Amino acid sequence: MSNAIPKKKLTVVGAGYVGSTCAHLAALKNLAPEICLIDIAEGRPQGIALDMNQSAAIEGFGSRVVGTNDPADTEDSDVFIVTAGLPRKPGMSRSDLLEVNGQVMRSVADYIRAGSPEAIVIVVTNPLDSMVTLIRHHLGFPSRRVIGMAGVLDSARYSWFIAEGTGAAVQDVDAMVLGAHGDSMVPMADRCTVSGIGVLDLLDRDAVEAMGERTKKGGGEIVKLLKTGSAWYAPASASVAMAASILRDEKRLLPCACLLNGEYGIENLYMGVPAILGAGGVERIVELPLRAESRALLQKTAGAIHEDVLAMRDLGLF
Questions:
Q1: What is residue 125's DSSP assignment?
Q2: Could you tell me which residues are beta bridge partners of residue 266?
Q3: Omega into 127 within 30° of 0, i.e. cis?
Q4: Cis bond before residue 33 (omega within 30° of 0)
Q5: Distance between CA atoms of 155 and 188, rounded to whole angstroms?
Q6: What pLDDT, on a 0 to 100 scale, did the predictor assign at position 94?
C-alpha cells in the first residue's frame, strides 16, 4: 500500500481522548494533507494540533493538523469522524447517553450538511447504532455515506481474547461480530479463524462462548477499570482503519453499522454487518448465511436498537 498522501481533507469532531487519538493516527498514516480537529472547548483542539504538528519532524509525517472551534474550518471535508459527546461512566449503559449525545449529533449534522454536502461520515459516539441513525436523519445523506464504527472495534476485542486463549499471534486471528454495539451484539464463533483454522477446532465451545461474552462487555470492563473514562486507543484505531479504506479506496471488507434494507431480514435499521468500504462509502453489504440461532440473536439485537430509536423519538430528537 502506498504511503502517498491522498488529496483529501479529514475532519475529526471532538478533541477528547478518542478524537485526538484519531487525529494523531491519521497524521502518522498520512491519510490527508489537512486533518481538522474541532471541539467546542476553546484552546483544546488548537493546543493538541500544535503539539502534534511539532512531532512531525520526528515522526516524519506530512499531514498538517488544524485545531479549531469554528465549523467553517471543516468545510469541504471528504470524511468526518464524529467522536463528540459524553463517554460512559461506571454503571452507565450506552443508552443512558441518548438525550445528551443526541443533541450533539443534531448540531454536528447542521454544519456538516451546510459545509461538506458530499462528505462521508463515520460515527463513533455512543450509543452508536442510535447516534448514526439520528445523524443520518438530520444530514439527509444517502445511507452509503453515513456509517457507524462498531464491528471493527468489537471484532478486534474478540480477536484479542481469542489470541490470548489460543496462544496464537493476534495478527493471525480473524474474528467477526455482528449486530448492535452493546450487550446484544452477536459474536460469530463459527466464523472465527486462526490462520484459516476454525477457532472451534482449537478451543472448546464453552471457552469460545466465554470470550464472546467478554467481548459483549468489553467496553464496560475498561470503563470499570478506568473509573473516570472509557476506551480510546482501540476505538480510534478502528475509526482510522475505516477512514483509510475510504480515503485510499482500499475496498476493505470491514464490519460496520450500515443501514439495512432487507439484508439479514431487517428493514430500515442501522446494524453492524460486513461491508466493503471504498471511495463511495459503503460500496457493498455482504450478507452471510446464518445458522438459525445466530439469525434469532440478530433479530433480538435489532429489537434493542429499535427500542432506542423509539426512545429518541419520544425525546423529540428526530
A1: P
A2: none
A3: yes
A4: no
A5: 9
A6: 59
Residue 219 class from Cβ within 10 Å (0-12 exposed, 13-18 middle, 19+ buried)? buried
pLDDT at 6: 75
Task: Compute the distance between CA of residue 144 and CA of residue 135 in angstroms, rounded to an integer.
Answer: 13
Q: Is pTM, for the whole model, over 0.90?
A: yes
* Dihedral pair phi/psi, residue 144, rounded to 5°: -65, -15
pLDDT at 97: 82
Q: Coil, helix or strand for 187?
A: strand
Q: Would you state the cell numbers that stand for residue 112, as one nine-digit string?
A: 456538516
Nearest to 152 by CA among 250, 93, 238: 238
Indicate which residues carry an active-site annotation: 181
Alpha carbons 81 and 94: distance in angstroms, whole number: 19
The residues of the chain scoring below 50 in pLDDT are: none
pLDDT of residue 69: 98
Distance CA 165, CA 202 (A): 9
CA proximity to 40, closest of 69, 12, 72:
69
Residues 6+ apart with CB under 8 A from 62: 5, 30, 33, 56
* Alpha-carbon gap, residue 149 to 221, rounded angstroms: 19
Which pLDDT value is given to residue 93? Answer: 65
- Domains, the chain, ordered by start: 9-148 (3.40.50.720), 151-229+256-313 (3.90.110.10)
Max Cα separation, the chain? 55
All 3 cell numbers of residue 30? 498520512
* One-letter identity of residue 75: E
Q: Distance between CA 242 and CA 232 in Å, rounded?
A: 16
pLDDT of residue 239: 98
